[in-house]
Design goal:
Length: about 260
């Protein structure tokens, strides 16, 4: 009998795994004896994080790969997938939100950067991984780290919310398309989490309290709260789960 939610011995690729939620996912996987490769735009930082997590997890197998999801993702990722044993799961966590502004003030450059990273990058990475799985006749799992902004409206985050709503639709469509190939596709939609992405809001006591007050459970999540759900979806215990986006938001989207 397979141990509940076990990922021991599984190979997992975490795209965008050098900080925040991605780093927490890599750490959780390593603690459970998964073989993990994280990607980062900064090669030195990626290697540093991989070494740090491997050491703190009892010399787990943690590797790093330099990858910018806005540039040559298909070519670079395909080369790595061809040269290495295919992962059992790919988790796409890369995302940006450089603009906190009313929609009429969002620039074309900001819009393009957000969509190229959050949605286009996600699709290209998933397509590249799925092609390899299909060619080899192997099952697999894809997990997109989304946001509650992909499920509800989000003031002053129009481009970010639009890209994440696109990701919600992508989960459903890819799950339908690739089910026959035994490739599961799911999403995880965090609420407010204490990461670099929300650092500016956390530094403003009034805004931080407003965020906390908006959450029924009355506190902000830690990255590990999100990581645990991603680990479950990576495991055999989630073998019949596909096409779903899981809200991990302290009840924020209940109303």
């Amino acid at each position: 009998m397979t141990e509940y939610a076990s990922v021991s011995g599984q190979r997992v690729l975490v795209v965008g795994g050098a900080r925040g939620i991605g780093k927490a996912i890599v750490s959780r996987l390593a603690q459970q004896n998964a073989i993990v490769t994280l990607t980062a735009r900064d090669q030195a930082r990626g290697q540093q994080v991989a070494t740090e997590i491997a050491s703190s997890s009892g010399n787990a197998e943690v590797y790093s790969l330099q990858l910018d999801v806005t540039e040559d993702t298909d070519q670079n990722l395909n080369r790595w997938l061809t040269d290495n044993e295919l992962p059992d799961t790919m988790i796409f966590n890369a995302g940006v939100s450089p603009s906190y502004n009313r929609p009429e003030k969002v620039t074309d450059q900001e819009w393009d950067l957000i969509f190229n990273t959050n949605l286009r990058g996600a699709f290209i990475a998933a397509r590249c991984y799925a092609r390899q799985l299909i060619n080899q006749g192997r099952p697999g799992s894809i997990i997109f780290i989304n946001s509650i902004a992909g499920l509800i409206g989000a003031k002053r985050l129009s481009a970010y919310a639009a890209s994440k709503h696109g990701l919600t639709g992508l989960v459903k469509n890819l799950a339908m398309e690739w089910a026959e190939n035994k490739i599961r596709v799911n999403g995880v939609a965090p609420g407010w989490v204490r990461t670099d992405l929300t650092a500016g809001l956390q530094q403003n006591p009034i805004l931080e309290q407003q965020l906390i007050d908006s959450v029924p459970m009355a506190y902000l999540a830690e990255p590990e709260d999100i990581a645990d759900v991603a680990v479950f979806l990576s495991s055999h215990s989630a073998r019949y789960v596909t096409g779903a986006t899981w809200s991990v938001d302290g009840g924020l989207t209940c109303g």
